[in-house]
Amino acid sequence: MIKLSLPHLAGKEQEYVNNVIESTWIVPLGPYVDEFEHRLDSFLGTGHAVALSAGTAAIHLGLTMAGVKAGDEVICQSMTFAASCNPIVYLGAKPVFIDSEKETWNLDPALLDEAIADRQRVTGKLPAAIVVVHLYGMPAKMDEILEIASRYGIPVVEDAAEALGSEYKGRKCATLGDFGVLSFNGNKIITTSGGGALVCGTEAEAARTRFLATQAREDRPYYYHETIGYNYRLSNVSAAIGCAQIEELQARVERRRRIHNLYKAGLGELSGVTVHDNPSSDIHSNFWLSTILIDKEQTGKTPDEVRISLLDKGIETRLLWRPMNMQPIYADCPYYSAPKDASSTEETNGVGEWLFDRGLCLPSGSSLDDKEIEMVINALKEVLETK
Ligand SMILES: *Cc1c(COP(=O)(O)O)cnc(C)c1O
Fold this sequence. Notes:
single chain, Aspartate Aminotransferase, domain 2, Aspartate Aminotransferase, domain 1, binds pyridoxal-5'-phosphate
């Protein structure tokens, strides 16, 4: 079976975990957590990372740090994984979804501008934060988004869970917004088994995030609380795995980019298939997952039919993230998408739905070798060329 994205061992995991067990630092926090944060900061080049128990926890604390409160509205990219917006609801705030543009598949800046003005008209106040996602590792149009956000004074939480190692104009994703979110879940670029980080701009914000993630215990000889806290710190055992993983991070990113290039070369000539690529030289994806669009007219196949045929051949693929405006739990939330032109016969409401209708994620794990990628390419050709 060729899987989508599996954990890829770096080599030193066992040794570092043994060190933890010998030291009996089997607790949240500890020397490996400090070291992991330090190595993240070095990799990112700027910012202060706080290691946490999950990427979802990082979004929750990022929104909290951004000042989101019950009753607020928070803007979120509609085409994403539910973890990007569930924490909005944990805080008692309300998501407002915005459609993607077709170049990066991320938050459409023009719609963002319109939506903020419209929310201000409808509710009398501005949204409290903006969650932008770098889907599949592809950086969003950050200059445009940050310009709009700063014009209105709205903080930006950058969901870079899939984008560790991606760059926008030479700067690392997770360091572009007010707060950056990383995930070290088993399927991501590197793993701690489960884990995440919130990247803050200042040491003071990082200290506040650590405080909130450690039950918001005030500095007194007894337990004393003035704030609601969480138990969100990363375990020292997980961080030991992370320290080993991060030693190979750059190589993992290079490998995913190479896999993407193999798909581009191998599928470039296949009619009805488009490999999603960096739209400009400003945008440098890590290609966490390589994705394609399949033209139904030209191939006579839907992405799900292709997925099932490939599964029969022992190849795991996955449909794109189903946009949040198409999820029952979020169906009642405001959703902003570009108006359709009158001549369009599309049944989809906006770019996210259009992409979901056509897209497929291909096996992209950094442990896959060139021969396995070749097998995926050949299988795809076979499936798409047989009517
Ligand atoms: C994986 C992921 C998350 C959540 O990270 P966890 O570590 O699994 O909690 C959030 N957003 C996106 C876009 C993700 O892909």
